[in-house]
Amino acid sequence: MMNEPINVVVTGAAGQIAYSLLYMVAKGDVFGPSQPIILRLLDIPPMMGVLEGVVMELADCALPLLKEVIPTADPIVAFKDVSAAFLVGAMPRKQGMERKDLLSANVKIFKVQGEALDKYAKKDVKVLVVGNPANTNALICSKYAPSIPKENFTAMTRLDQNRAQAQIAAKVNVPIANVSNVIIWGNHSSTQFPDASHATVIVDGKPQPAIEAVKDGDWLRNVFVSTVQKRGAAVIAARKMSSAMSAAKAAADHMRDWFQGTPPNQFVSMGVVSDGSYGAPKGVVFSFPVTIKNGKWEIVQGLQNDDFAKEMLKITGKELEEEKVEAISIIEA
Ligand code: NAX
User: Fold this and answer.
1) pTM above the 0.90 mark?
2) Both 99 and 165 in a single domain?
3) What integer pLDDT is reported at residue 97 of this predicted model?
């Protein structure tokens, strides 16, 4: 039995992440094989020609679940009745641009999109912010959509999680599916803390703590952390363009788990509005390990963090608080 179609918006729809993401969404990777969708594609007016080409290609993919595609530069059209929002579009950092200029441009974009979500989206819309600075953009978006619960705004750290999982799998020489429960704490930035202390690796059919499987504490605290933190830069250096296929896959993973739930005994990392768990600052969008059931996420409680982890959480939390203060001062200026 097929469900009624749901409206899904993707912003930055003419960009490179969207180019991979749209195919995954439209073929059923996110909402499942019985869920038809109407895709609403938002980009800025100069990109409408490029977007038209993307619309042609989506038609030529001949995907049975895709009921309609609506390209637009108007947020009112884009956010109408949406149940899921992938906010990928953002102002990229250009050469010579200060962090403050980047934040300023993006605060404005996410304010407008928050207001449009508030007015036109479904009240139970699930919002995933991919565009950077993703955590703070998600916070601003939520601030301007007061009629939608704060829990419905999340930021993507799943790419960092997938990168971390891949590093552990390669180090232990097991398939990627044998690694679970690697955590990304904090900001999607170079201060993030990729943490394998609570992860499990299946070796020769037996689950064991990642720390025991890796057998190299120094590697876990140094090489592993910095490789994951700097993976985006390494991809840019090699490809001359930023991560796109892997970012799209991560966005699809994040939204699929949010809609369909996490597997038993497994958690995933998502940037969510912090309640102060694990000593993180309250009221910033902070990446935590979460489990998801019936469309609701919950922060995993009771994990023991050592002094190294506590220090790492403090650093990334401080950066998020600073970003929040800067973003709010820009809005109120
Ligand atoms: P592209 O520059 O290829 O595409 C961005 C698209 O957004 C462009 O088509 C642009 O016209 C559009 N856009 C700009 N302002 C808009 C607005 N107000 N409304 C609608 N569309 C708008 O970038 P891409 O490589 O696709 O990356 C998109 C964003 O993802 C960037 O901010 C990037 O930094 C961020 N990333 C976030 C990641 C994460 O893990 N959270 C990882 C990948 C990526 O770096």
Assistant:
1) yes
2) no
3) 75
The 10s digit of each residue's pLDDT in 100-127 is 788 888 999 999 999 999 999 999 999 9
Best residue among 21, 40, 44 to mutate for probing ligand 1, ranked by most atoms within 8 Å of CB: 44
Residue 192 Cα to ligand 1 middle (Å): 20
- Distance CA(49)–CA(53), nearest Å, equals 7
- Enzyme catalytic residues: 188
Q: From ligand 1's centre to the CA of 272, what distance in Å? A: 20
What is the atom index within ligand 1 of the atom nearest the CA of 92? 32
Does 240 map to a domain?
yes
Decide if 329 is inside a domain. Answer: no
- Tell me the residue range of the domain where 108 lies: 6-155
Write out the two tokens for 161: 């999680």
Exposed, middle or buried by CB within 10 Å (0-12, 13-18, 19+), for 77?
middle
Looking at ligand 1, which residue's alpha carbon is closest to its atom 35? 131
